[in-house]
Design a protein that fits this description.
The chain is mainly α and 137 residues long. It is built from 6 helices and no strands. The N terminus is likely disordered.
């Protein structure tokens, strides 16, 4: 990524409030969480973050590490409880899956039975029933 594309990335994806420090020279919690998410999803490296946001070159890595320890655990996503309709749909889909698996098993057994019948007929009657490869249709 070139320097010009990095600066355009900075202005388009990071709000101006993220770039500013408050009067205590600490970054907002929203910025910290955003940065940890970017780092965890590997869209940004710690070195890129230090350079882009003007963190102190020596203490920046320790700061980022501290934020990762604090905020990475909060990024766990939880799914909402399934609604009654979703539970019904899931049950119907599971039943349909079982039905289709049963049909597939029956089709496999039918295929085996037909192949066995053809093998026995070819052996007993001494005739070729299966089509030869490359034969004209």
């Amino acid at each position: 990524m070139s320097l010009s594309s990095e600066s355009s990335f900075n202005t388009t994806l990071v709000s101006s409030s993220f770039e500013q420090q408050d009067e205590d020279f600490t970054y907002e919690v929203a910025f910290r969480r955003w940065l940890v998410r970017e780092l965890e999803e590997q869209r940004l490296t710690p070195a890129q973050a230090i350079e882009r946001f003007n963190f102190h070159p020596v203490s920046g890595y320790a700061l980022i590490h501290k934020w990762r320890l604090k905020y990475a655990q909060e990024m766990v996503l939880s799914l909402p409880e399934m609604t009654f309709q979703e539970k019904q749909d899931l049950a119907l889909l599971q039943a349909r899956t079982k039905e289709l698996e049963k049909q597939l098993e029956q089709a496999k057994m039918y295929n085996i039975a037909l192949n066995t019948l053809i093998d026995v007929a070819e052996e007993k009657l001494k005739i070729s029933i299966r089509k030869k490869p490359g034969a004209r249709q």
